[in-house]
Amino acid sequence: MVQKHFTVVNAQGFHMRPATDFANAMSKFGCSVVIKHNGRDVDGKSLMNIIASCIKVGNEIDVICDGEGENEALAKAAEMIESGFGE
Amino acid sequence: MRITDLLKAEGIKIGAEVADKAAAIDTLISLHEACGNLNDVAAFKEGILNRESQSTTAIGMEVAIPHAKSEAVKTPALTAITVPEGVDYDSPDKNPCKLLFMIAATTDGDVHLEVLARMMQMLMDTDFTDKLKAAKTPEEFLALIDEKETEKFPEEAVKAEPAKKEGYRVLAVTACPTGIAHTYMAAEALNKAGEKMGITIKVETDGSGGAKNVLTKKEIEECDGIIIAADKNVEMARFNGKPVVKAPVADGIHKPEELIEKVLAGAPVYHSNETDTSADFGDNESFGRKIYKHLMNGVSHMLPFVVGGGVLIAIGFLIDTILGNATVNGAANGSFGFTSFAASIPFWIGKIAFGMMLPILSGYIAMSIADRPGLLPGMLGGMIAANGYTLKSMFEAQNLVGDSSAVSGFLGALLAGFIAGIIVNLIKKAFNWLPKAMDGIKPVFIYPLLGSFLVGVVMCVINPAIGLLNSAVSNGLTSLGTTSKLVLSIVLAGMMAIDMGGPFNKAAYVFGTAAIADGNTWIMAAVMIGGMVPPIAIALSTTFNKKKWTAEEIKSGPVNYLMGLCFITEGAIPYAASDPIRVIPSCIVGSAVAGALTSIFNVTCPAPHGGIFTFIVCGNPWLYVVALIGGSVAGALMLALLKKPANK
Fold it and tell me: What is the pLDDT of residues B19-66, one digit of tens each?
């Protein structure tokens, strides 16, 4: 299991497009992806769950990947979040 | 932000027939247009299509949420359609979409993200989406969402309002001289501005109908700052230590937002100088300091009554002396000071001012403790202390006449002030449970009613206890008799200084006047000088030992020479009240010394009042003057020894 702490940098937070991209990207990996936000575990592969958790700019989140390809998944997640989803 | 705040029945189309994605989008946009949510339809559509071109907004489960954040949006809003046949919306699960929402978001704020999140939380429940898809009318659709939203977020239905009420960031007081229109217009403007800016605000209106929506002590403590939009004086002492912005009432009406910004930006901290002690009381006042502050509020308000009344009485004595009324056929004149017409007018006006002295003292002590609601019960308590009312005198007398032996005097009034303040504060606590809507009647009905009744009863019970003390002292004096002239003179003179109008003073004075009738005029000499020394001793101290007194006390000091010479002991009360523990013993010592000297010098005095003006009828008048000087100097020296430097 690997995990990393992030602060959301893009102004709009995990709105629909970033959430869609994130969920799509994570779904390609075999491991489980969990976003810890505001004390709750959010399925990082579910667009609806991500959006429902309302992750805004400046929020502190942890991404936890566990299983096959966990390192690659976390690297990809980090790349997306830290780049602000290209926004 | 609730979904139901954003989605209206006119923005919903049930059973839309749309051939493809483009038609679905057009339908949703036309609903927005019909609801008047858009500034620029073409620009908004461009935003929607632009977003779709990045990736589809279909989220699976037969749901799509096209959205755009755009300058073209006038007000944030939602529209929705159900498509029973389904429409191909490039969904990730390849299924056609049957339920579509379109979010129109303004470029400011997080509405967009919050609405999305909220909708997702609700839409994850497939039972719910099935019901929505099956809805027959826009109203049914809306009702389903409302029900779901209330179920999902129950806390906000209950919480949204009370959360605001827990405390206010900004407090305000509005007032105008007439108190009819501007006061309330300013209050309304401030409330609206606060709501618009998302700042919790409470506005007290000091109108002609009394203060409404009165700010509580707790609210004042917890707020960030206070706005005073008023063209007349408002109660400021309660805002001591808080940031305060002062402005004309017109600014409250026309520039409410500016005022709120100003107070939040950090206004200068207000320091109450109402107590006139020039002392700067911090937030963390010690118990002793609090007591001192309350005491000084009473004393500083009482001072003009004492000075004004005292000087008027002295003028009465002076006029009667000039007109030759100091003596009647060579003997003492019992109605000296008010024998002639010219003397009686200032004399009795002065007495009326004196009559208000103790109620003012206790009233303002109580007001300092319990704010304005304390004033009435405090004054009432002081009145009862000054007149010696008891439960018995109320019940038995046909016309209310106090029991002169039960007058608790200025010490009783001090006590009444503190008792009233504490009682009113307790009443305030006891009525905390009343609904907010009832707040208006508390200060105009509940506090005055209960406060005065309770304080009145308590003081009527305290007075008889004073009466018992009085008769005990009188009996003691009688049994002391005239066995030792020196001891009796010392005791009587000292007693005059103990409470300056209270039971000890009264007992001694009555003993003295009774002795005149018996022919023991040396007793009255000791009594009168005992009452003359305290004001003069204090006057000497304020003249030669300025560091012990506040600026205000020094200013009114010279008047005390006059009052002392006229046997108006009350002149010493404001000074004694501000620091009883040190001032009273000093006065007692001074008076006792003077009493001893009159006894040694064999002075006699046949007049019951009049002070220095009666010395011409006294035996050994020049030695009487020496005794007076000796006692006063002794008192002033005691003050120098005991009193601490004033808080300046």
Answer: 888 999 999 999 998 888 888 888 999 989 888 888 888 887 788 888
Which has the closest alpha carbon to B460: B396, B399, B385, B410? B385
What values do phi and psi take at A26, rounded to 5?
Answer: -70, -30
Report whether CATH 3.40.930.10 matches the domain B3-162.
yes
Question: pTM, whole model, 2 decimals?
Answer: 0.49
Q: What whole-number distance in Å separates Cα of residue B596 and Cα of residue B600?
A: 6
CA distance B121 to B101: 14
ipTM: 0.76
Question: Do residue B110 and residue A15 have CB atoms under 8 angstroms apart?
Answer: no
Out of A15, A21, A52, name the one closest to residue B124 (CB): A52
* B320 within 8 A of B337, measured Cβ to Cβ: yes
Residues B585-624: tens digit of each pLDDT: 999 999 999 999 999 999 998 888 888 888 877 888 899 9
DSSP state of B223: -
Residues from chain A that touch B60, judged by Cβ atoms under 8 A, are 47-48
Q: Classify the phi-psi angles of B620: left when phi > 0, otherwise alpha if psi is within -120 to 50, otherwise beta.
A: left
Query: What is the Cα B439 distance to its own chain's centre?
Result: 15
Structural domains of chain A ordered from first start: 2-86 (3.30.1340.10)
The secondary structure of residue B270, as a DSSP letter, is P
DSSP B38: B
Q: What is the pLDDT of residue B179?
A: 60
Burial B408-434 (b: 16+ CB within 10 A, else e): bbbbbbbbbbbbbbebbbebbeeeeee
Quick: pLDDT tens for B305-354.
Answer: 988 888 898 888 889 888 888 777 767 777 888 889 999 999 999 999 98
DSSP B434: S
Residues B6 and B32: beta-carbon distance below 8 Å: no
- Which residue positions in chain A have pLDDT lower than 50? none
Mean pLDDT score of chain B, rounded to an integer?
Answer: 85
- Sorted by where each begins, the domain ranges of chain B are 3-162, 167-264, 289-642
What are the residues whose beta carbons fall under 8 Å from the beta carbon of B244, sequence distance 6 or more? Answer: B225, B226, B227, B228, B236, B263, B267, B268, B269, B270
Cβ separation of B110 and A16 shorter than 8 Å?
no
Query: If one looks up domain B167-264 in CATH, what number appears?
Result: 3.40.50.2300
Six token digits for residue B417: 């002030």
**Helix (H), strand (E) at residue B244:** strand B244-247
**Alpha-carbon distances, residue B162 vs B155, B157, B194, B198, B458 (angstroms):** 11, 10, 16, 15, 39
Tell me if chain A has a CB within 8 Å of the CB of B1.
no
From chain B, the residues in CB contact with A56 under 8 A are 110, 113
